[in-house]
Amino acid sequence: MTKYNHTTYAILGILTTDCRSGYSIKQLIDQSLTHFWKISYGQIYPTLKLLVEDGLATITTSVQQGKPDRNEYELTEKGKQTLRQWLEQPIEQIPVERNEVLLKLFFGSHQSKQHSIQIVEDYKQKLEARLQTYLGIEQTIKSYPTQQEDVKFWLITLDYGKRTTVAGIEWCSHTLESIRD
Amino acid sequence: MTKYNHTTYAILGILTTDCRSGYSIKQLIDQSLTHFWKISYGQIYPTLKLLVEDGLATITTSVQQGKPDRNEYELTEKGKQTLRQWLEQPIEQIPVERNEVLLKLFFGSHQSKQHSIQIVEDYKQKLEARLQTYLGIEQTIKSYPTQQEDVKFWLITLDYGKRTTVAGIEWCSHTLESIRD
DNA sequence: TCGCCCATGTAAGTTGTTACATGATTCG
DNA sequence: CGAATCATGTAACAACTTACATGGGCGA
């Protein structure tokens, strides 16, 4: 079976939900996956084309009233199989997360403490802001009365974001002390 | 002043240390920065060329006995300034860390619990293995009697790795419970 | 009328990896 | 003798972003 890249599988996965067009795929990503996955139109539309070419999806143009036509995609059996096969496989390896702050800190340590401190303090602020965003989203989700399965998942991803962000903030505090010594 | 990409600044930074050739830059990265920054030869050599073209570094070929010639690069004043200016700037934004596990979990939740559990358990194992690696490196570093500034930095980056990894492991445990319910 | 939402798409550029070519020396 | 280390480099490909083109409908 042909191998595809992560982006293709992501789109394949989204097509199992109610999102059937390039535009709504982008919307779903920006609303629900944005904390850990982003895709631009420049990837979405060519990928959808590929899916049809490879027989993983079919395309239907639906005419709407008051809105432009939309191309709706639907997974074929082959598409569903390809997705399933990917889902069942554990990830190959944890990717290396590039961290610009650590990079600056390394070279900055050869310069002045002041700048290193500034870099870490700024990073801490950004992380704190992100945490606040997560907490805000969490409240919004929890205030909705809907008891869907999706809600459970959103909370799980938010939890991931919260935990790693908090860990980052704590590292900042600790590092600031360590630099000041 | 011209803007360069992160990789270029990383190399600029490494040139402030004892590493002066493409080969030794690669070595330094693979030994010290590998947990949060990777660069391949395919980037290093063209970038070094660019640095010379832009007057940020000078090149000298040094003849060695019993070893091939090596091209040694040295930062010019302009190069040092460019680096300093980058170092002093706080990072623009925290990049989105792509997480394949969260992605699989999202689509997996529409399928069977069993697979979701497997994915998370596998991820947990990988994180635990990574944590062990970090702890091993930490011991190695600490056992060296050298009291360099670099050692302090290595411990700081390791600390970052440890904290975020532990946070990830805890998330796995929590998520596994949550899925099983 | 202005700007936003809906909707599809592409071209150019950036960034990065992988795989290859080349070749001397040293160590077991 | 074979493998590893030292050393430089490139070409092809993969992945992704940004910016642009196009255009109708709708609400303020």
TrEMBL record, chains A, B:
Listed InterPro entries: Tscrpt_reg_PadR_C, Tscrpt_reg_PadR_N, WH-like_DNA-bd_sf, WH_DNA-bd_sf
Annotated ranges, domain Transcription regulator PadR N-terminal: 11-84
Gene3D superfamilies xrefs: 6.10.140.190, Winged helix-like DNA-binding domain superfamily/Winged helix DNA-binding domain
Domain Transcription regulator PadR C-terminal intervals: 98-178
PANTHER family named among the record's database cross-references: NEGATIVE TRANSCRIPTION REGULATOR PADR (PTHR43252:SF6), TRANSCRIPTIONAL REGULATOR YQJI (PTHR43252)
Protein name: PadR family transcriptional regulator
Source organism of the structure: Paenibacillus montaniterrae
